[in-house]
Specification:
The chain has 737 residues and is an alpha/beta fold. Helix content is 32%, strand content 15%. Bound molecules: alpha-D-glucopyranose. Alpha-D-glucopyranose binds next to loops.
Amino acid sequence: MTRRTDLAAIEAILLDMDGTLVDSDASVERAWSIWAKEYGVDPGAVLDIAHGSPAARTVRRLLPALDDEAVMAAAQRQHALQYEDLADVTAAPGARLLLATLDRLQLPWAVVTSADGRLAKARLHAAGIDPPVLLTIDDVRAGKPDPEGYLEAARRLRVAPSACLVVEDSEPGLAAGRAAGMPTAALRGLDGDLSLPGLGRLAHLLQRSRVRPWWRDAVGYQVYLPSFADSTGDGWGDLTGVSARLDHLERLGVEVVWLTPFYRSPMRDHGYDIADYRAVDPSFGGQAALDGLLAQAHRRGMRVIGDLVVNHTSDAHPWFVAASACAADPHRDYYIWRDPAPDGGPPNNWLSHFGGPAWTFSPATGQYYLHLFRPEQPDLNWRNPALAAEIDAIAEYWLSRGLDGFRIDTAGYLVKDAGLRDNPPLPAGRILPARGVTMDWRRQEHRHDIHQPGVHAIHERWRRIADRHDAFLVGEVYELDPRALARFVEGERLHSSFWFGLVETDWDADRIDTMIESAVLASPRLSWVQGNHDRSRAVTRFGGGLRGRRRSLALHALMALLPGTFWLYQGEELGLGDGRVSPGHGADPLGAAQPEESRDVARTPMPWRPGPGLGFTTGHPWLPDGARGDGETVAAQQDDPTSHLNTLGRLLATRRRLTHVLAATDDVRRVRLTAPVTAYRRGALWAVANLRDTPVADLHLPAPAVFDTDDPGVTPDRPRTGYARLAPQQALLLAGE
Ligand code: GLC
């Protein structure tokens, strides 16, 4: 379970004493040897079973014939042999570093030991350790492996058991921790949720997990560059246009801007087909426009991430131009080439997302090349180390030039089955629930073309580069099962990954409710999104109109509390539904193959103000303007305190004021309140939403409300307490002590 080993979620450390925090091995051994002689037991047999167990338990196992009183006497004798034997008792290696680290991080801790109170105090004193909470065998009915001691320590520290890390060097101790429902860290090569070579390592890991990186809980905003803001009047968005609109983003509370691809490109997939990874396309304003945007954003304290599109290049990339001209070219192996099948057709049955086979014949060399998207987007060969090194250098290049990270395009696709085996067809009548692909693609099981395990090693490699620059990597991984998705962000893989559950669904309150819960449980490092440039907008999928907008907003209120990054797709802040694009006026290659899947509806220009060009352009927009109403524009919504824009702005402003409370814990739990609402609690904060279409009466508020979707008068300075009635899709944030 990822949660368990996520040290950032740990709120207290519970340490065993002997062999863990205190090095008392010699003294323990001497005492048991003398005791064994006195009681006529083989000393060799004793030590094996004594470690980590209360003395009485060991005595009982060795001398089953003794009655309770005699067992107690024998255990006391064993302790007595150790009370004065403190000469070589010291703090274990790394113990001082660990305790100093806990002190600095203000992480509460306790010692839970099988020794009695007198012995524990004597040993800790000899080792120079003074724990804030000490639980000994005198404080419990049964010692380890019984969990009572650990549970009692958690209670005294006022920390939930699941947020306590047990550190142990013996099996009975680890068993006690597990039985208490606590994650465990094991020493001496034993098996815990974490295996530690020593306490110093734990100090280091905790330290690292506590330095909260800038992107944790950040508010991100996706700019779809062609459609955000045009500064030149050519009808096509550009980087200077983005610079000119930073006020809007700053007012909204955006901290990270993701720019869709700005590289030189023939734009056959609007930038997702790159011809030069190190150049900014002139149509977006060239390098100077990017430098200007980075400088202005950074001055405002905003970060900017790019889009790393390295599953494929453009067929106009010099690598592909050379590779397709000559089979002996050194760049040939940057791509995936195969001979035709015996009948002259494609080498296997893989399909392009945008229609037709995933293979195109290249007459110059008589082979086919692979492309999971358009024929103009040939797939790169990630089994070639030279290619991997090129991409490392490209990532380095941009991070050194000032980008703060990358959204990773099709992050789960890079590696393909080595044998390029056929995908099995799905049983007749079954189709994948996937969107953004053709119907033919949905009839295959994509066992061999995408989501191959080798991608994690590539992500780990990029992570090392990113961490050197304090940069952020967020993956585009269309893996809807949150537990499978969590594997992409565990350990030293991607920092985060979008979870597309809310992007791929229409409105179904119950289903959305359970989906969110499973994503919350899977990982605290997901990126929450409702939409992007590849799918119908959330407001439309959620029913459209006022109801669609209210549903989207209620989910934003829940998202505001969840650990991970909070993302908006441009226009979501205005409550935009899909733009209208009449047949024949679209530009999306997918729309040409599968009209009902066209992505144009989410890509129509951003409506800044009423009138021709919508304030997006003074010219003729590259895509139809989407038939926006005046009320959908930024200008119209800005002055209305109850507008979608201002409500979302209020939500994000409230969240910003509560940052320190959010940062206190990543541990989020679903809570049941007095009424049938969806509620989550994160430390002192709650998010409560009525996702249903019926009102909820008499909801007792467990803490003061500081944000209310339906009442701009509710603020952290003017909270509301007591009982509330929640209209359909009304949502609240509550903040307690
Ligand atoms: C990603 C992009 C999409 C693009 C595809 C191919 O899914 O979001 O817009 O068409 O990759 O690069």
